[in-house]
Structures are given as structure tokens and as C-alpha cells.
Structure prediction request, 154 residues.
Amino acid sequence: MYTSTKKIGRTSYTTLRAGMVVVCLLSEGCLNPEAMIEAKRAIAIRARLEEIDLGEYRISLPQPTETTEAAEIFFHAFGQVANRDLDKVEELLETLGPELRHRMLLATRQLTVEDIQDPPLTALKTQIAKVVNETLPGEPMQSVGFYRFGFSNL
Prediction:
């Protein structure tokens, strides 16, 4: 009786092991060394991000004609770029600063009051990152944040 239990246990173990191999091979990225290297590289890049000042803005948002209210936002934004791109981005921001500022104003004015009232400010952050990455070559902007942010509905 002891040997038959051991045989069943060994068979179950072999079946389980074969099943795990099949699942692992069918799973995307399970044994993919390139994916593992890319994931480690992405983590390392995020760990070496530097903040870069994108400036202070005070922007009046356009309102529908049927209302007399005006809305205004003011913020001091920063972007995060990889350490290796910091010097290049700072140089380009100095050169392309007026164009970037103009494009950020236009992009921000396309947002609605509801977009601005969203607590995580996802739409505004996305717009700023999009404008910066469209203006600067190589899409260096990883994320956007705010030193200060304010919204007033006048």
C-alpha cells in the first residue's frame, strides 16, 4: 500500500510539473529574456528621473457665450526626464521656450472646466506631456507634475 501511494504521488507531481511548464510556455513574457531586460531597464530609467521646470502659467479658460462666468487656472509645472536627457532638454527648452509656451497655452485652453476640476488633473498633465513631447525631439518627457496649482471660477 505504501508503494502505490508513492506511485500516485509521483504521477501527480509529474502531471503538475508538466502542466506548469505548459502554462509557463503559453504565458506571454514568462520566460522572455528580452521582456525581462526591458522591464528592468524601464525601472532603472524611472529611478533616475530628473525634474525640469516648465514654467509658471496663468490661463483664462474660454467659456460658452451664454454664461458670464470666467474660469482661470494658474500653475507652476515641472516635467520628469531621464537623467541622460537632462542637458539636451534644458538646452532645447531655452531655445524653443516661446514656442513651447504658446503651444501649452493653446492646449490648455482646449480643456473644459470639468477636465480642470478632476482632482488628479490627468487631462492637464496629459496635454502638457503631449505638447512637450511633440515640441522636443525624442519624446523625453516621462511625466508631468505641479509645484503649485490653483483654479478659480470668477
Observations:
- The longest helix spans residues 2-26.
- The radius of gyration is 26 Å.
